[in-house]
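= Paired protein data =
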Amino acid sequence: MGDLVEVPPDFFIGYAPANLALSHLSMVTPEIADVLVVPLGEINPKDGHPGGNFQYNRNSKLIRLPEFNEHDREQIGKLGGLRKLVAGFLKIKPDSVTDEMFVVFTIAHEIGHAIDASSKTFEEWQEIGLKEEGIMTRYKWLPLKKRIAGYRQLPREKYADDFALARLNKLL
């Protein structure tokens, strides 16, 4: 386990660009100093969030991230969606998206959720989540591509994507 104040040398993420991104983002976003970063575990291809997730519980805020080792990056790459998403945001071809780009985007996206949550009470965050779930449930009959596009427009996802894109653009 680690927190975002400091990335210890024995931190579970062994991929240097990921650790650099975490260190940099923790320094420029002090409002997330109370967020814990914990291992995601094995990447599940059926999981809609293979690159990580953010959880706001009543007593804690957690960012779950993969180790971003070679196996993890390969698994995420095989799923393809994350590279295509980042490519779309950057207006480049998916095969031009490097491991570093999608790793930085993923980490910054989850930190974006943490920043967004830091301005809300737990109850407010839960209420927004329930509204977003309701919206997605109403559109579950749409083709997957349209559901994903709609999901990306939900307020919490849009905030996190915008934050991640701004950080990625600064680092490029």
Remarks:
- The helical segments are 16-28, 70-79, 81-90, 99-118, 122-138, 144-152, 155-171.
- The chain has one domain: 2-171.
